[in-house]
Design brief:
Shape: elongated
Order of helices and strands: EEEEEEE
Strand order of the largest sheet: 1-2-7-4-5
Distance between the termini: 52 Å
Strand content: 35-45%
Radius of gyration: 17 Å
Helix content: under 10%
Mean pLDDT: 93
Length: 104
């Protein structure tokens, strides 16, 4: 396999007095047949904000296999072949504290 890209998922952290951190995106292209597996969390339910902070964006795992986009789920495994691409988008962190209202 080779890592195709790594970047931040800008804006995925929950809003609040203290904004949650952003998640990351990683893409891998496979160069030969093999079996992959992933065990990840926060794909169905978002990371929660605390003390009035907002929830963060959920993560998602996507497999492009034979030109088709497949939502891979949080816990899964399968066989892949040359040219297949696996994208992992990690969730952001929940925000902390209620955001203060400002005068306009």
């Amino acid at each position: 396999k080779r890592q195709v890209s790594t970047q931040s998922t800008g804006g995925s952290g929950g809003d609040g007095k203290f904004r949650g951190g952003d998640g990351v995106v990683r893409e891998f292209e496979f160069l030969e047949p093999l079996t992959i597996g992933i065990l990840s969390e926060r794909r169905s339910l978002p990371p929660l904000g605390l003390m009035g902070g907002e929830n963060a964006a959920r993560g998602v795992n996507i497999l492009w296999k034979n030109g088709k986009k497949i939502f891979f789920g949080g816990k899964n495994s399968c066989s892949v072949g040359p040219g297949d691409v696996f994208r992992i988008e990690t969730p952001g962190g929940g925000g902390y504290g209620a955001k203060q209202k400002t005068d306009e």
